[in-house]
Amino acid sequence: MSVSRLSKLLQFMEQDPNDPFILYALATEYNNLNNTAEAFQFYLKLISEHPSYLGTYYHLGKLY
Description:
Blueprint: H1 3-15, H2 20-32, H3 36-49, H4 55-63
């Protein structure tokens, strides 16, 4: 994973900030970049706004 991928995902989020796939991809990308604080925030946002996005719970649990 790379910072350029993160930049692209952030651009996608600007276009569609409520897309759960983009939010999940951002959380995963931050986690892969060892930025667990940002990953945590995106996973929490997903649980709050898209509670049926099941993969979120697994990855959020791994951060604990």
